[in-house]
Amino acid sequence: MPKPSQRKTEWKDQYTLLCESCGYILEDLDKTLPCPECGKPITESLPGSHQGTPFQQHPSSKSAIKTAWMTIHNPKLIIEQMTYDQKPHVTPISRYLTYTFAICSILLIAPGLMHSLFNPTTPPTNQAGFHWILGAIFGFGVLVIIGLMIWTCFFILTSIFSVAITITMRLLRTRGDINVAWVIAGHASLGWAFTGFIWLCGLQIDSLIGYLVPTNSDWEKRIQMGIMINSVLEPTFLLGLLIGSLVFMYISALGIKQSRYLNLPQREDSTDG
């Protein structure tokens, strides 16, 4: 039998069966046995052995919330559960991206949306009331367009990150590819929700400062000079974007580490005929 060190390093192609924990070559071994190197059951390293995240198993709003919570609570478990098929762009990952980007967009436009739908001022009757309704509808439409633009920006940003994940996996000589990178990036996109949440908190802080500090007072001038009021929103958005990117990169790093000995199903275009 080849030495363990040889079996760990010498594999002929990306479809050679490896232990996904330590990289030990499992070809020609009894699949009911554990890995001779680390003891991980061989059945857990077989292609298609991953059960998939809750959303990958049963795409729905409920499973999206469960997947998001698991991603925050135990990202390593989510990475271990991820499953990869041949065309992830048409799998539940794209739908999961829709959910996460929608959450980000709603969080970012929430204050304006609430103001448009629930304007505290009571409109007068007749013509003025009609104009008020038209203004509310127009404001709501503008916010929806802005939300779609934000959704598009996050999608482009996630696509760029997926390419960066692919390049990183190739540089580190892992067994992941662009499809694996897309699945990882899709789940890591939850990080952008932190951008919207922190932005929303910044808006509330700004409103609270404006409510507590009298207008044109010495305190307002001091706070303005301290970049806390009227200038708090831009730094808050940038801080949220930074934290969201860090969360995204942390989950992506876990995925890249998991992909180093990943056993992918052999694709149709890689077989004879």
Give an overview of the whole structure.
There is one protein chain. Helix 3 crosses helix 4. By secondary structure, this protein is an all-alpha fold. Residues 1-6, 120-126 and 269-273 have low confidence and may be disordered. It has helices at 4-9, 54-57, 61-73, 75-81, 92-117, 126-171, 178-188, 191-212, 218-225, 233-258. The two termini are 34 Å apart. The protein contains ten helices and no strands. It has two domains: 1-49, no CATH class; 51-262, no CATH class.
Key descriptive features of the protein:
mainly alpha; single chain; 2 domains; 273 residues; disordered N terminus
SSE pattern: HHHHHHHHHH
Q: Total strand count, please?
A: 0
The number of helical elements comes to 10
- Backbone CA Rg: 25 Å
Q: Estimate the global geometry from the Cα principal axes.
A: elongated
Number of structural domains: 2
Poorly predicted runs of 5 or more residues:
1-6, 120-126, 269-273
Decide which structural class fits the backbone. mainly alpha
> What is the mean predicted local confidence, pLDDT?
75
Assembly state (oligomeric): single chain
**How large a portion of the residues is in β-strands, by DSSP E?**
under 5%
User: Residue share in helices?
Assistant: 55-70%
Distance between the termini: 34 Å
Biggest beta sheet summary = none
